[in-house]
Amino acid sequence: MKHIEVFAPGTVANLGCGFDVMGLTLDGVGDRMEVMVEPDAEGFEIRNESGVELPESLDENVITPAVRAMLAAYGGSVRVIIRLLEKIVPGSGIGSSAASSAAAVYGINELLGCPFSVKQLVEFAMLGEALQGGTAHADNVGPALLGGVVLIRGYEPFDIVRLPVPDNFFYAVVHPQIVVSTKMAREVLPHEIPLSKAVKQWGNVGGLVAGFALRDVALIGRSMQDAVVEPYRKGFIPDYDVLKQEAMGQGALALNIAGSGPSVFALASDYAVACRIADSMERHFAGRGIASHTYAGRVSNAGARIVES
Ligand code: HSE
Predict the structure, then answer these.
(1) Are residues 130 and 201 in the same domain?
(2) Is 129 a catalytic residue?
(3) Does 86 qualify as catalytic in the annotation?
(4) Catalytically annotated residue among 129, 230, 246, 282
(5) Closest by alpha carbon to 141, among 297, 306, 298, 13?
(6) Is the peptide bond before 262 cis (omega within 30 degrees of 0)?
(7) d(Cα 124, Cα 109) in Å, to the nearest integer?
(8) pLDDT tens, position by position, for the chain (309 residues)?
(9) In this structure, are residues 68 and 80 in contact, taking their beta carbons and an 8 Å threshold?
């Protein structure tokens, strides 16, 4: 069988005001897998060798709907085997499911001679997200495939825009050991929002996009506010307002919930500041008897890619 080793990075979705339409790429964390294909043969297998617990049934793996949609669009029969080698822990809020489905479709596309565009790969990969939260959104799979900061301008028709990343732009992420499922975090959201909140929100989304386009980190920081989703979700995160105050006190440009949580992310224009914020967020949860895992690094421009052996 033809084979290739691929990596897709972790991602942070929403970026405050951009619920389901914005996301960015993390450096130094992601999924690594070996993808094998055999044309003119049948079969699909996922071998989990990552050490991270995942559903055993193929139908419950987020990779499956993405790969099935891709192979249906391809037409010819292809046998696919995926060996998961490194995996972001599911439920962490840093795009675990997106990294898996993005890496899988990226690897298969490469081995088939690139019949699909990156935009089409995003549309296949986002089907895996529906398995998690009921909705096929692309704010994690977009940056996992394209790298950098991504805006989904529209879903019907699908329109994705890659934005530049400022040079000195770093993240701190804390993953507290509490469970907040994407499904639960979506169910608490209102179906309608008042016009006054909508006005605030689209002002901030515009500010955020302008901030990235202009590489203006202060504008990015003050636009990363969320009048719509954060008020409903912050109750899942112990003393969230205090956590935000602490991080801002350590020099964060902004802090918000990473995707549907429970992870929280902050942005900074200096790596040392990002590390300091990560420590402060860890202390916040430790002080409340909650263990956590932190990450700090550069917001990356690199999406899914081949791992050179
Ligand atoms: N945009 C999604 C949400 C990301 O906030 O529910 C989580 O997968």
Answers:
(1) no
(2) yes
(3) no
(4) 129
(5) 13
(6) yes
(7) 11
(8) 999 999 999 999 999 999 999 999 999 899 999 999 999 999 999 999 999 999 889 999 999 999 999 999 999 899 999 999 999 988 877 999 999 999 999 999 999 999 999 999 999 999 988 887 677 889 999 999 999 999 999 999 999 999 999 998 999 999 999 998 888 999 999 999 999 999 999 999 999 999 999 999 999 999 999 999 999 999 999 999 999 999 999 999 999 999 999 999 999 999 999 999 999 999 999 999 999 999 999 999 999 999 986
(9) no
Residue found by looking up tokens 């709907």 in the block: 65
| Ligand 1 closest atom vs CA 98 | 8
Query: Would you state the pLDDT for residue 251?
Result: 97
> How many domains in the chain?
2
DSSP single-letter state for residue 87: -
Provide the residue type at 199 as one letter: V
Residue 141 contacts residue 129 (beta carbons within 8 Å):
yes
State the CATH number of the domain containing residue 255.
3.30.70.890
Any atom of ligand 1 within 6 Å of the Cβ of 139: yes
User: Rounded to an integer, what distance in angstroms lies between the CA atom of residue 8 and that of residue 97?
Assistant: 11
Question: Hunting for tokens 């990473």 — which residue is that?
Answer: 258
Please provide the size of the chain in residues: 309
Q: Are residues 153 and 175 in the same domain?
A: no
Omega of the bond prior to 90 within 30 degrees of 0, cis? Answer: no
The order of strands in the sheet holding 292-298 is 254-257, 264-268, 170-176, 292-298
Residue 74 CB coordination number (10 Å): 15
pTM score, whole prediction: 0.94
The answer to whether 40 and 76 have CB atoms below 8 angstroms apart is yes
- Which CA distances in Å does 182 have to 115, 135, 237, 296? 32, 10, 14, 23
CATH of the domain at 47: 3.30.230.10
Using most ligand atoms within 8 A of CB, pick from 92, 96, 97, 137 the residue to mutate for ligand 1. 137
